[in-house]
Amino acid sequence: MPAASVTPTDLSITPRDRRFARESKPGRWWHGGDPFATAFYNALSATFPKGEAFFVESVRAFRDGAPAKLAEEIKGFTTQEAIHSREHAAFNKAAVDGGYDLKPLEDQVQRRLDFINSKPPIAAVASTMALEHFTAIFAHQLLADPRHLADAEPEARAMWRWHAIEEIEHKGVAHDTWLHATRHWPRGKRWKVKANVMLLATRNFTVDRTRGAIELLRQDGITGFKAWFGLLKFMWVSPGMMRKIFGAWAAFFLPGFHPWNEDDRHLIDRYEAEAALGIQSAKKVRRAA
What we know:
single chain, mainly alpha, Ferritin, hydrolase activity, UCP07580, Metal-dependent hydrolase, hydrolase
């Protein structure tokens, strides 16, 4: 590859086949009784079943002929993403059972995907690369700052944290697939295309997720200034997820950028240590009972 991958050579992409929101389903305002926080995350979740299926197909299209390491990472990526799609479908069903209509949000996702799929396959992998950077920096922020999910119901918090560690784990796959697919391109062309795709993806992501959350708030009877003020405050001020990821988002445009320029596997290690401790505690409770 003319632009080198810096994905750690000892990285292992390990699908963790877990299930959520089956027996213990999240409540309507599952994020601490806060309609704005709940609407933001529900609007994001509504994109995943269709969106991650799209990611899988866009990357898989370039697996043949890829270096052996990348081909293996693509396999792990596609397995993880398929499980994510399944679990967010279950999470979204719980939202629908709670009274929300997610169809307007899902239809908007489909319109975006139909447009991208009308283009050559390289457009799909470029879009996946840009959106995977979004999911990776969201995931980093969710795990690095526990306050983002501190008020969420345990089952919902567990699902989002589980999803986050796998997004970090496979954050370089779409980028490396892009490097492989464009290996014969001049560096200038590669940068120009990826920058333009990221700007478009950013515009669509921000506008669509905001409008989706506003629609869910409307279904809660929260409209007008109250809806916009509460949502934008949550997104940009406190806790301000969109503001806090800005630096990591901007790094995408730097020469030599690669998602693994920041090795944040310590967040995965911390999660797995906490998960193991939780399992041990549960076993002790059962033995005591």
